Amino acid sequence: MKRYVIVGGGIAGIHCIEGIRSADRSGSITLISAEADSNYGRPLISYYLEGATDEEKMSYRGSDFYERNGVTALHGVTAEKLDPTAKTLTLSDGQVLPYDALCVAAGSGPFVPPFAGLDTVPQEKKFTFMTLSDARGLMQAVTPESRVLIIGGGLIGLKCAEGLYAHTKHLTVCDLAPHVLSSILQPESAEIVEQHLKAKGIRLMLGDSAKEFQGTKALMNSGETVEFDLLVLAIGVRPNTGLIKDAGGDVNRGIVTDASMATTIPCVYAAGDCVESKNIITGGQGILAILPNAAMQGRTAGINMAGGEAVFDGGIPMNSMGLMGVHLMTAGSYYEESNGGQVYMEASEGSYKKLFTKDGYLTGFILMGDLHRAGIYTALIRERRPLDSIDFETVKKDPSLLPFGAEYRRQTLGGVV
Amino acid sequence: MKRVYVNEKWCLGCHLCEYNCAFANSGETDMAKALRGKVIHPRLHIEGQGEIHYAVSCRHCTDPLCVKSCISGALSIQDGTVKIDHDKCVGCLTCVLVCPYGAVAPGPDGAATKCELCLENACGAPACAAGCPNNAIVYEEREEASA
Question: Looking at the predicted complex, does its ipTM rise above 0.85?
């Protein structure tokens, strides 16, 4: 009987279990979760904070998932040392687990730069926003009077702001970048979001961040002082690669794997936000820390761990997010005239569309407002479908299956896909 | 398993399937009461241009991207049918972002909606196919990778 060990109870870990069980019903599976919680949709923590979901609904595969799949789940322990020769994993509680196949699905943790005086901020007023436990803590701490300073105007910081907005209106978000969501938007589209946030009464301090903390005061680069009751540090994330690195496996920014999700250590796989994978558009390796990739990588790893054959052949960056009433979708890489691409744009009241093409392929898009059938664009990017094989002039205005031709429709609407 | 299949040569573009779909999923027993004066939210839609018409609905893919991309676990495969748990869905619309056929849509209350083959409603089998006057939509078993 094969012994499987999975480090991490997030989406990659859950899909790894499903992958293993699709090929092996009898092997033993032990899952290690540093968090007290596992098997929940991590991006849901902002919805939880907002009150738009609850802990029961957040259960990603249901509360009987481990039982149904014969999984021993160990919570609140961390994996300390991987011994590739003995094929054992030592845990923080001293337990030593032997394994035949192991998957590191350890995700990422908050990146907090060394702010001067951060240690003077009382512990109970200082938060990161990565886990359900973080969300519970914030929910207990926040009152309608709370003044909250969020450091970081990216996806995590702004979704946290949205969640907190259900509790307090005194929100300030700062970011060193001149615009919000700088990793997925351009200045023009970011401004639309910024106007929206400001209209809701959120204070944005862009191109600015904390230089120093003095208790519950942040001294900003701009010279201003921001007083707060709660501080959220949402600057960025850092992949949890230490276990593989310390064991001698290859790690760049993330853990290096092949298309089977195997690391350079025999019998050890990795999946999710802690790994690097191929970007289908650029061909380059990088961290594509989004949930769909974690799911596909986890499943791929699990199937291969159990002796099956599966491949993860790369992904693209993409996001769909609602933010206090404005909904935006982004995908791919943004090539414009300045870097060899072409742009198609439509903008009207409440709606914004920008499509990026390069060398005869759709490479990226930014959509706000009208999001209908956006997946048709995403598929064009992901499948690298040559645009001269379809009527792109029509599809760029209105995403439908019409420009793909009758044969494509016969196969997809008249056949099993 | 049985799925909904479309033959665009037979489609008249009459949009009856959209009304049957909206009625089937309305929970009402009277069609006029269910649809009169209302903006309908059918889970399939007719598209086309000129003489070409066809219905587009969830393909119930064998390896669905929407299920793998769902952040809440609201989308799942049950006996081959791709289902959505309305209560679990938080309306992030990642499923809309990834469906290659544009067959998942934002619903009236923010949560995503899609065809569930009428298996859960009073029809018990797809109302679009049952009501199609020209057999342009059928509900039947077909082989994988044939068509």
Answer: yes
